[in-house]
Design a protein that fits this description.
Number of strands: 13
Strand order of the largest sheet: 6-5-4-3-2-1-13-12-11-10-9-8-7
Largest sheet: 13 strands, antiparallel
CATH architecture: Clam
Strand content: 35-45%
Helix content: 10-25%
CATH class: Mainly Beta
Structural class: alpha+beta
Number of helices: 5
């Protein structure tokens, strides 16, 4: 098994699980699955991988901050958004895998931001149901397949840390902190509706573009580069079907697209507990 597992191309967060469990058997060479190759040409609307040294003007900062402030209010306001630091998502839909292609899956994401997550997957494959869990607990990462512990490479651990950072930014409030530089960007229509875009830059991650509906200021799309298991991928995440959840406006439909290929397409239900047991994030 160890010899086979050395040939796995790990994929972080949603896909470290899929890449590990569905490539681990039946893989006879070092060729990565086609879904993990980079596109031949980069999209013209892709943000840069590195932070620009050019600072935005005061007018640009004010414009971007105006969009962010409107978005914070649209999603429920700062007090309610603080509740997203701890929440649980029940996800149901399809998941791209390295071995079986697209499979049906029930997924559960537990977040205690900014530094804890647990992701549980029960995927339906031609070989039956396959459970897998992955966790990140304040720098300590772990993974289990069928209740058997597996090693996680440093590259995948770093990808999980980056995923936590991304999830933290989606709560919007961290973007008010001084470490983030905001600037307005051109924004194309999304689902035939006008959007307004801002680019978020910081020293700890590549720039991330966020796009908000120009009328209701809900976050409908993000676009940015992610280093997944040592491989750069252009990742677009789309958010739709917003509903009220205890005063918060949250999307019930998510599509996660990597290098032009949809990897996750799921519906989401939320719970907002005041606390999540620390044991949930510990290695079993």
């Amino acid at each position: 098994m160890d010899g086979v597992r050395s040939k796995i191309w790990p994929i972080a967060f949603f896909f470290v699980t899929a890449g590990a469990m569905f490539s681990a058997s039946g893989c006879s060479d070092d060729t990565p699955p086609p879904i993990q190759t980079l596109p031949k040409s980069t999209r013209s609307d892709a943000p840069p991988r590195e932070e620009t040294t050019e600072r935005p003007t005061s007018e640009q900062v004010a414009e971007a901050r105006h969009v962010l402030d409107r978005a914070i209010v649209a999603h429920g306001g700062p007090v309610r958004l603080q509740r997203l630091r701890r929440h649980i998502q029940q996800q149901k839909g399809t998941l791209m895998t390295g071995r079986f292609g697209v499979v049906q899956a029930d997924m559960e994401l537990k977040l205690d931001l900014p530094d804890r997550l647990r992701f549980n997957v029960k995927a339906v494959t031609p070989e039956g149901q396959y459970p897998i869990s992955i966790g990140f607990d304040r720098g300590q990462s772990w993974m289990t397949e069928n209740s058997v512990a597996r090693d996680i490479t440093p590259e995948v651990a770093q990808s999980l840390k980056a995923e936590l950072h991304y999830r933290h930014l989606l709560t919007l409030l961290p973007l008010l902190e001084s470490e983030f530089v905001l600037r307005p960007i051109d924004a194309a229509k999304f689902d035939q509706r006008a959007t307004r875009g801002i680019r978020v830059s910081s020293k700890q991650s590549p720039p991330l573009d966020l796009f908000f509906d120009a009328e209701n200021y809900l976050l409908v799309r993000t676009l940015g580069w992610f280093l997944e298991g040592g491989v750069w991928q252009l990742r677009e995440v789309q958010f739709r079907d917003f509903h009220d959840v205890d005063g918060l406006k949250l999307p019930r439909h998510l599509i996660d697209i990597r290098d032009g290929s949809p990897w996750v397409d799921c519906t989401i239900t939320y719970s907002l507990p005041p606390a999540i047991d620390e044991a949930e994030f510990k290695k079993p």
